[in-house]
Amino acid sequence: MTTHARARQPQQPSRGRPRLLAPRGVYAPQYDTDLLLRALGEEEVGEQTDVLDLGTGTGALAVAAARLGARVTAVDLSWRAVWTARLNARLNRTAVTVRHGDLCATVTPGSFDLIVSNPPYVPAPSPLLPRTGLARAWDGGLDGRAVVDRVCDAAPRALRPGGVLLMVHSALCDASASLRRLTGLGMDAAVIDTSHVPFGPVLRERHGWLREQGLMAADATLEELVVIRAELR
Predict the structure, then answer these.
(1) Residue 139 · residue 173 · CB < 8 Å
(2) Which residues contact 29 (CB under 8 A, 6 or more apart)?
(3) For residues 208 and 114, what is the distance between their CA atoms, to the nearest angstrom?
(4) For residues 78 and 66, what is the distance between their CA atoms, to the nearest angstrom?
(5) What is the pLDDT of residues 108-156, one digit of tens each?
(6) How far lies 222's CA from each of 10, 125, 138, 178, in Å?
(7) Which of 3, 53, 93, 117 is the most exposed place for a label (fewest CB within 10 A)?
């Protein structure tokens, strides 16, 4: 279990993203998306690479991988996100198979070389995950790990030996816990990138509650994001 992170200063979201529609009710690409896009660009991705995008949202990562030549499957629990990702793939003239489903439930085990995921990770006052609405794109349960842990558990089953998981989440839900979990599942895991970004509306709204939980300092104004890379042994 290792940590080799490149600390980054806050950046505005990239202008180099694919052209994407983000209708109301679908998570629009933000700083976390850009971090994962940067990590994706550092992997060896080509025509023989099978990529799985878990929780695709607008399809930003799926489209980016397809533009690199990969064979891409994208999955989301939201039908609105599924239709949005399909439309964005067509707008960018890329071939992406977009499926409605819960994480890896609709894919064949051991069939991917690379998984990318930007799961819901924001700690929330309720232990119950929202079943509808945009909040299910970010609410991760009391400790923020309800979906993060499931992505960690699903990745080794979906990957081929030597396959890689790239996942972004907030430091609020404990990067070391992700590294320990992935290592215990037979993966070599490390934090490969970090960035401190301004609070968005959700964290500003929950600042008081997060402070009461001991997850945030009273004067905090920036959120630390981490990118985790885990390779299946």
Answers:
(1) no
(2) 13, 17, 20, 22, 57, 58, 60
(3) 38
(4) 21
(5) 999 999 999 999 999 999 999 998 888 999 999 999 999 999 999 999 9
(6) 9, 20, 17, 21
(7) 93
**CA dist 72 to 94, 155, 173, 183, Å?**
9, 16, 28, 26
Q: How many beta carbons lie within 10 A of that of residue 17, not counting itself?
A: 16
Distance of alpha carbon 226 from alpha carbon 95, whole angstroms: 29
CATH architecture of 13-194+225-232: 3-Layer(aba) Sandwich (3.40)
Residue recorded with tokens 């990318």: 116
CA angle 220, 222, 224 (to 5 degrees): 115
pTM, two decimal places? 0.92
Beta carbons of 117 and 148 less than 8 angstroms apart: no
174-214 tens-digit pLDDT: 999 999 999 999 999 999 999 999 999 999 999 999 999 99
